[in-house]
Design a protein that fits this description.
CATH architecture of the largest domain: Alpha Horseshoe
Number of helices: 19
CATH topology of the largest domain: Serine Threonine Protein Phosphatase 5, Tetratricopeptide repeat
Distance between the termini: 117 Å
Number of domains: 3
Helix content: over 70%
Structural class: mainly alpha
CATH superfamily of the largest domain: Tetratricopeptide repeat domain
Order of helices and strands: HHHHHHHHHHHHHHHHHHH
Oligomer: single chain
Length: 374
């Protein structure tokens, strides 16, 4: 018997911690929790293990035990940064954003080198603004004994004042649309669990471990409801709508700014093309016109006002530049493209201009009858 005992592996504190962390990384939080429980039996009150178990509880949705462990890790060392961070994270998950903010700040003062405390401050402040609006929009009444009250304490106080009778169940149900927005992909899971509840035979069955299926399903629905309520508090629907509107307005503004920039760019280039031709730099004028034409053809209709008219104008400039360079056939092609563009888009002035230019090229080529007909 003694020999058998010697063969058993010795579970050390370090081994249990390593195994628990490895299980946690694989998402097996229930098994990880058993490891941390055993580790704490070997080294009761170890602050690092308490913080690790607190994280594990939080992953399992057990905020009460998560908070208990985080507070226990701070019992003998109030400046333990990991404990402060874990307490802040748990309070945040509970929807108690003001107290979470207090502990994020406390941690940041002690460890300004740890960036996670600043991130915590940012998300807690954002959640508070989403819940109550910006501080500049909130007017506080001046009262003599106005103290710092946590959101949870306030909620508990209200609950005590207007406690419904035990047999009375709350009838207020969140609208399907709101719930869908809050739960996202998890909404389908909740709907599925609620559908299973209606199967009376299934509700009476038990698992191999002797747990009633009904209890498991109710536990799942309760967890999803807690998440829904937390997400509603952290970022209410109106805050999401506001953000969506801001994003939309930003895109509209960017689009307007882009269109205005494009307009200025085109106007400047058109002016340069015309000036170059007037000053006798036909080759450069033609090169610039071809370059701008490619650019305009690549832009969308709504980005370039009067896109077709501009394209016609550029063919006109190219034709005139080619004529100046004695490139008659090229000039004829460009002016015919201008005419085609004008006719397709019902632009009578541009049609007249293109016909006049085509006639002029024909005359220069000695094709007088075609010039007269044109």
């Amino acid at each position: 018997a003694m020999a058998d005992d010697d063969d058993l592996p010795i579970s050390t504190f370090g081994n249990l911690m390593s195994e628990g962390l490895a299980l946690g990384r694989r998402g097996l939080h229930e098994k990880a929790l058993c490891c941390f429980n055993d580790a704490l039996k070997l080294r009761a009150g170890d602050k690092n293990c308490l913080v690790t178990r607190s994280r594990c509880f939080l992953k399992l949705g057990d905020t009460a035990n998560s908070l208990k462990d985080a507070e226990a890790s701070l019992q003998h060392d109030k400046a333990f940064s990991e404990g402060l961070y874990q307490k802040a994270e748990t309070l945040y998950s509970m929807g108690d954003f003001e107290f979470a903010l207090v502990f994020y700040h406390r941690g940041q003062r002690l460890r300004p080198d740890l960036h996670k405390f600043q991130l915590g401050i940012n998300k807690a402040e954002e959640a508070i603004v989403n819940c109550i609006g910006h501080p500049s929009l909130v007017k506080l009444e001046s009262k003599k004994e106005l103290g710092f009250v946590s959101r949870q304490a306030e909620v508990q106080h209200r609950a005590l004042q207007s406690k419904p009778p035990k047999d009375q169940k709350p009838t207020k149900k969140k609208s399907v649309k709101t719930e869908h927005q809050l739960l996202g992909e998890l909404y389908a899971d909740k709907a599925y669990l609620e559908k299973l509840l209606k199967d009376e035979d299934l509700m009476q069955t038990t698992t191999r471990k002797g747990i009633k299926v009904e209890a498991l399903i109710l536990d799942g629905i309760s967890y999803l409801n807690k998440r829904r309520d937390f997400w509603q508090q952290q970022k209410p629907i109106y805050a999401r709508e506001y953000e969506r509107m801001r994003l939309l307005q930003g895109r509209m503004y960017d689009k307007k700014r882009k269109t205005s920039d494009i307009r200025r760019f085109i106007a400047k280039n058109m002016e340069d093309i015309e000036l170059l031709l007037a000053r006798g730099s036909a080759k450069e004028s033609c090169r610039r016109a071809e370059h701008l034409l490619k650019k305009i053809q690549g832009w969308a209709e709504d980005e370039v006002p009067n896109k077709n008219e501009l394209i016609g104008n550029l063919y006109n400039y190219m034709g005139n530049a080619q004529l100046a360079m004695e490139q008659m056939e090229a000039a004829l092609r460009s002016h015919k493209l201008d005419l085609e563009c004008a006719r397709q888009n019902s632009l009578p002035d541009a049609v007249s201009r293109a016909l006049d230019n085509i006639g002029h090229v024909y005359a220069r080529l000695g094709r007088f009858q075609q010039a007269i007909n044109t």
